[in-house]
Structure formats: C-alpha cells, structure tokens
Amino acid sequence: MNTYPIGTPGQPWGEAERAAWLARQRRQRSYQADVLSVIERLGSRSDVQPYGELSYGDEHFPLMAIRNHWRNSLPVVLVTGGVHGYETSGVHGALQFVEQHGEHYAGRVNLLVAPCVSPWAYERIHRWNANAVDPNRSFRENSPAHESAALMQLVAPVRDRVLLHIDLHETTDTDESEFRPALAARDGQSFEPCGIPDGFYLVDDSEHPQPEFQQAVIAAVEKVTHIAPADESNEIIGSPVVARGVIEYPLTQLGLCAGITPARYKTTTEVYPDSPRATPEQCNAAQVTAVCAAIDYALAHR
Fold first, then answer.
1. CA gap 192, 181 in Å, rounded
2. Which parts of the sequence belong to the Peptidase M14 domain (predicted)?
C-alpha cells in the first residue's frame, strides 16, 4: 500500500499534488557557494562555458560546463555529475577531478565536464526538478526537463566525437525512504522495496556493453572503497549482476544521461554515501578514481 503523504493511493498526481509536493521542498545548501565558486576558481586554468539558465519562479541558476583547451584532433571525454542534485559526490567528484587531474589529460583528450546538471535539486537535496520530473529519465527529444534539454544542446555539436561518457551518481538510503515512495505515489503505483546495496557499482549499457572497460573501473575504485555485493537473488537494486559490481540498463531507451551520445565507452557510477564503511571524502575520491580509470582505459583501447 502506498503510504506517501501526498496523493491518493492508486491515482497519479495532478497539479494540486505536485504543488503540495513543491511546497514541502526547502533550500538546504548553496549552488553558488558550493559549485559556482569552485568553477570560477577553476576558470584560471580551464575554459568555463555557460550553456543555459534554469528559472523556477524567482530563482535563476546559470548552467556551467568546464572544458580544457581543445584540439580538434583529440577525442572528447564527457563527464557529468549532479543529474540528480542530491547525489553529492557526483557534483564534488566531478569538480575534484578537474582540479586534481584535469591538467594531466591536456593534449590527450578534450574534456567537457558538466558538474551540476540539476542545481535546483542540488540546493534542495532532491532527485527531481521543481516540476517533480526526474531529469535522469528525461534525456530524449522534447524533454520535459529543462536540465536534460540544456545538457543535450551543449553536447550536440560534439556528440559524435565522444569517446567516453561517465555519469557520476549515488545510491542512497533516501532512495528507499523518500524518492522511490514519492515516485510510486506520483505515478499512482504501489511502492515495492528492493533494498540499497552497500558499496560502489556501475551501470553498463545493455545495448552496447563493454565488460572489460567496466571491470577496469571497478578494479581501480576497489582500491578506494568497497564494491557492492550482489544480493541473494544475484541482483543489485532489482537488476541482474552481469559481472562483479556491474549491472546493465538500456541507457538510451530509458532516457538516461549516459545514453545521450554514441560513445564507445559509457558508464554510470553509483556510490553509497550512507555506508558505515565510507566517508564523504572516500565517496568523492571514488568518483575521481572512476573518471581517471575510465579515461585511461578508453585511451588505451581506442
């Protein structure tokens, strides 16, 4: 039985329910202080590219990407974070990657990093945008999410040159306590718990899998934090485990961020920040390690 406090069980939300949900959301941190200020600092050694602005009521959020100094002969590496704003290490991991390792890849790849795709949700520590839409199911033509549409427009001119796209995410306890119940309520469905895996895992593209690539990333990250085990059904969050720490989704079919290019190498990272065995610093480091391992593998196996 759906017990979410908004809506009537079995009935999808209408405008009144969405408004009631929006009224419950509170700003809890600052995109300006946490993200834009860091991007501004990184601008002294990288190219900062505005790619749009989100407007929700009287709030406005500039959308910013970071590029290194590009050469047309080099492949493009796309790094995205904060598609789900509440997934903190995705945002800070992307920023730390640029700060700590961006210059290492100068002259080797063209980096395009969008560290916080969903700034309104970052400030609310939420999965959805202000319209109760999940950006990470909205990367498709005529997207209902401005966040997704803006990123696709940014990537469009180089879409066919992307060698690697790594999308940085987290799976948290609030997925089970808040976000999945809210999703079920919004869509008029019953909530079915499926558990939260303790550890890091990856999501490969079932339509174009690259198992050796995924395992190279897992091997690198394992030196930083633990890898999520399969459950008793040999699954992680309801999907079959195809290799240690790896599940697969049809990325483009589901409208997921990691499916927006025809890149040979694609992956979605999933860090578990609520684990008693991991600190926020470890979670950020796991994301950074995953990005570096992914780029190194892609360059070695072009």
1. 8
2. 27-302
Q: Which fold has domain 15-300?
A: Aminopeptidase (3.40.630)
Quickly list DSSP for 143-194: -S-HHHHHHHHHHGGGGGGEEEEEEEEE--HHIIIIIHHHHHHHTT------
Q: Looking at residue 272, what is its pLDDT?
A: 97
Residue 97's pLDDT is 98
According to the model, what pLDDT value does residue 254 have?
98
Report pLDDT digits (tens) over 38-56: 999 999 889 999 999 999 9
* CA separation for the pair 300, 302 (Å, rounded): 6
Q: What are the structural domain ranges in the chain? A: 15-300
- In degrees, rounded to 5, the angle at the alpha carbon of residue 93 between the alpha carbons of residues 221 and 212 is 35
Give 256's contacts (C-beta < 8 A, 6+ positions apart): 136, 137, 139, 167, 249, 268
* Pair 158, 76: CB distance under 8 Å: yes
Strands 59-67 and 76-81 turn out to be unpaired
Position 53, amino acid: E
**By C-alpha distance, which of 250, 246, 207, 200 is closest to 226?**
200
The strand pair at 201-205 and 265-271 is best described as antiparallel
Round to whole Å and give the CA distance between 154 and 296.
24
Q: Which helix (H) or strand (E) holds 282?
A: helix 280-300
Residues in the chain with pLDDT values less than 70: 1-2
Please state the separation of Cα 139 from the chain's center in Å.
Answer: 12
Rounded to an integer, what distance in angstroms lies between the CA atom of residue 167 and that of residue 266? 8
H or E element in which residue 212 lies: helix 211-221
Residue with tokens 């869509």, as numbered in its chain: 187
Phi, psi dihedral angles at 56 (to 5 degrees): -130, 105
Tell me which residue has tokens 């995109």. 31
Q: Which of 163, 157, 155 is nearest to 260 (CA)?
A: 155
